[in-house]
Amino acid sequence: MTPSSAKESPLKTLRSRRVAIVVTIMIIVFGAGMSFYSRATVVDNAQSFTFPNSWLGKWSGIITQPDSSVHSWTFTMSLKETRGEIVGSFVETSLECSGSLSTTFADSSKLELDEAVTAQPPSGTPWFCGGGPIQIKRTGTDRATYSWEGGVAHGVIRR
Length: 159
Fold this sequence. Notes:
Lipocalin, alpha+beta, 2 domains, 26% helix, eight-stranded antiparallel β-barrel
């Protein structure tokens, strides 16, 4: 083999460079498209976890649970928007419980919230607060039903 035959032809080098440039452009364009699609999907999915401003504010009412040692108590929740997400807190005054609320589903007629208890009643109290999923269904502009654990505890709350 002579030294000149070991050298690539200018045509082959130019073609390789063009292929490399085209492949690079495709990766950039396709990557940007996937990033845009992924962000749009995340935003679309996130919207199902936020809910209309009509739910914001303070809601309260009497909740009953017939099979409990405390048959009824006052429930108050406050909902607000923070950084594009709805967050909340709750207080169950006569049970001496409180905590946070996070949205798992929402639309204009129904909220599904996860109740995380952060303060339990004093030790020695014959009850505890379990937390968990609650469902709020709108029955009027400023009125809704409350249901915990599929209706074990239920009531009407108002704004």
